[in-house]
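Input record (one chain):
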Amino acid sequence: MSQKNEIPILVLSILITVGLVAGGFWWFSRKSGLELNTVNPVSTNTPQATSGKPSGGTFSLVKDVPTGLFNYGGSTSWAPIRLVVDPAIQAARPELRLRYVEPSNASPGSGTGIQSLIDGQLAFAQSSRPVLDQELSRAQQRGFSLKQIPVAIDGLAVAVNPNLNIPGLTVDQLKSIYTGKINNWSQVGGPNIPIKPYSRRIADGGTVELFVQDILGGQAFSPNVEFISTTTQALQKLAGSPASIYYASAPEVIPQCSIKALPLGRTQGQYIAPYQEPSVLPSECPGKRNKLNTDAFQSGKYPITRNLFVVVKQNNQTEQQAGVAYANLLLTEQGQELISQAGFVKIR
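The corresponding structure, as predicted from the sequence alone:
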């Protein structure tokens, strides 16, 4: 074969070889998930996008947990979680030392916790309602943003005296009671006695803020509503008065022996109990206690549900790392199981 014929054949061979190598690399990169010159986007609507993805099923496997003492605070509805979950976190991750702090000049709650976070008094906050637009604006004025990470499902339960004979209430009837349109139990199928509604003040926390926004539609409380300081105080009043009514976080109400939780519904007669049926009678308590109707809360059949959030300051400091780590610990299998033991509903 002449040299002139050999040169085109050699060039053709080289081109075929390069094509095979390039094609093989392209096939491998597609199969392995590798994208050249591409960054895979992460949806900002997922908890992982705001928190980082939790590692493993136990506290010991969570990564990027900072070392130090970190103050936190906020929602009173979180109290059962703090009681059950936080000691387990401290035992497994002693480098993350947690200290719950109450505000010095206000009642503890979601709003005061978020405000203390913005003011630099807390590393992260616990909230029983979403962050408000005005809170986001105040944070922006301080030079950082806020992220809310949902970690559990909760709901509001309506409590009455155990001797009150009534099958349940609709959400509209509950609104009418607290705005003063309904003022006697006979108007909702109960005995002919005046209704005595109790509530904490709006400034006291996320539970009341949620109730006013979602149930009352922003309307004011009736002058007939008596404001009390704590849920404990309100439940004591209910136990001694057959005409009283109160609302609070479901885990604070459902297990109580001295009151009963009312089934609620969106339409009359279609009531969903916040507890697992059959209900435990007061005479059986405290040997047995009512438990949360987790299926109804997870499915949304129960009409008043909400998420609990860890609110994190996005300032690229150890405070942000601590808040994200705390949320990730709660989102592990171990954390979710402990949240369930605390009386709340798993979010995953």
